[in-house]
Amino acid sequence: MPAYALPRQLEKPAMTRNILLALGATLIVASCGTPQERCITRNTKEYRTISNLLAEVEGNLARGYAWEERTVSRMEMDDCEVMVRDRDGRRGFITRSCMRNVTDTERYRVPIDPAAEMRKRDYLAARKKTLTPPAMAAVNACKAAYPEEKK
Question: Which residues neighbour 106 within 8 Å (Cβ) at sequence distance 6 or greater?
Fold first, then answer.
């Protein structure tokens, strides 16, 4: 057994902490907004998705290329705390250099077919036009069902 092995109790707290932070953030986001805002968000999801896709396609046409993302892993030097034991068995921590995996997201340009992007834009614009009346009706229904108090 190496003299600088990490004790078992130091391996898992970081993972548990990360899971708890992620769950906490999810609960906070889920509980955000007034009942009216939640109703509007729930009932206009497809309209908002089509609107976002249309904006992305129009941006691609304006630039002449699309953006894509990929995950890149690399090694990086870092300082690591390592537990060591002395001759009497007492534990202590030392800092030493070590290599760690680092993951980054990299954005890169992708060429587009302008004719295909224009067809996509035309389809999304027509779809948005058909979704606008039901989305507006849903917004008005939500406003009527959950009126907000004026301050």
Answer: 69, 70, 71, 72
* CA dist., res. 48 & res. 32, Å (int): 18
The tokens describing 62, both together, are: 């304006």
| Structure tokens that stand for 86 in this block | 């002395």
Residues in the chain: 151
- Residue bearing tokens 């707290």: 13
Q: Which helix (H) or strand (E) holds 92?
A: strand 91-111
What is the DSSP track for 20-53?
Answer: HHHHHHHHHHHT-S-HHHHHHHHHTHHHHHHHHH
How far apart, in Å, are the Cα atoms of 143 and each of 35, 98, 112, 129, 130? 10, 57, 41, 22, 21
Structural tokens at position 75: 């090694």
- Smallest CA-to-CA distance from 7 within 66, 112, 91, 86 is with 91
Gyration radius from the chain CA atoms: 26
pTM of the entire predicted model: 0.62
Structure confidence by residue, pLDDT tens digits, 25-65: 665 655 678 899 999 999 999 999 999 999 999 999 999 99
How far is residue 68 from each of residues 106, 117, 145, measured CA to CA in Å?
8, 15, 41
Question: Reduced to 3 states, what is the DSSP secondary structure of residue 113?
Answer: coil
